[in-house]
TrEMBL record:
Residue span, HD domain: 99-189
Species, as recorded: Oryza sativa subsp. japonica (Rice)
Pfam family, one: HD
Protein name: Os01g0109100 protein
TM helices/strands, residue ranges: none
């Protein structure tokens, strides 16, 4: 075997009759290269890249790649330590629901609502996956600005410590969203982020409106009860 060391192999005469194939080079266009480098598309629902989270109430919740980027930040993970019901757990040991669980649940409910809306009016309203993901993100991030013990911190603690404070968790949520996107370099378009914030504000308005409607119904019921009581008494 030593005689072959450093020696060039002899050419095969049969190979001289074979026409060599033309050498091809693979050229990648700039657009294709950009598409390859792009981490994910907004509105992508690839099952291989989703993450399953089990919830006691809603079962398995699938987090799409963009939602995972927000959930995996320390700003969102802090919601695990925020009690949904404030100090209620000190009286009722079972009331240990957190803002983290609540936010995941709202994310799932927003997805279910959009699925039904898309099923019955999707073509009429032009609902696409981007719209669905935008609404789901608004649900996921709607409480990210809450302080310790949730509403107790906002409505009871701050007014006593800082009289005249106008701090709200809604405003804090908007500030945190901008900070999270910049700090963690989350790939989301500015227009979509603005829509998420607008939906978040709209959700809060609807929540306050629903309370007003419930109070109106309660007042009407009390008036009817008062009229019936007065009729029976007199």
């Amino acid at each position: 075997m030593g005689e072959y060391c450093g020696a060039a192999p002899e050419e095969d005469p049969a190979m001289a009759l074979v026409t060599p194939l033309p050498t091809t080079t693979t050229t990648t266009t700039t657009a294709a290269a950009a598409a390859i480098k792009q981490p994910h598309y907004y509105g992508c629902f690839d099952r291989c890249s989703t993450k399953q989270v089990f919830d006691n109430l809603h079962g398995n919740i699938s987090l799409d790649p963009l939602a995972r980027e927000f959930v995996d930040t320390e700003e969102f993970q802090r919601l695990r330590d925020l009690k949904q019901l404030g100090l209620t757990y000190l009286v009722y040991p079972g009331a240990v629901h957190t803002r983290f669980e609540h936010s995941l649940g709202v994310y799932w409910l927003a997805g279910e609502a959009m699925n039904n809306l898309r099923l019955y009016q999707g073509e009429e309203l032009g609902i696409d996956r981007v719209d669905m993901q935008t609404v789901k993100l608004a649900g996921l991030l709607h409480d990210i600005g809450h302080g310790p013990f949730s509403h107790l911190f906002e409505h009871e603690f701050l007014p006593r410590v800082v009289p005249g404070s106008t701090w709200t968790h809604e405003n804090m949520s908007a500030l945190l969203l901008d900070s999270i996107v910049d700090k963690h370099q989350i790939d989301i378009e500015a227009d979509h982020l603005k829509i998420v914030m607008v939906i978040h504000v709209f959700i809060q308005l609807l929540w306050h409106l629903s309370i007003a409607i419930r109070l109106t119904h309660l007042l009407l019921s009390l008036r009817r009860m008062a009229l019936r009581t007065s009729y029976l008494m007199f």
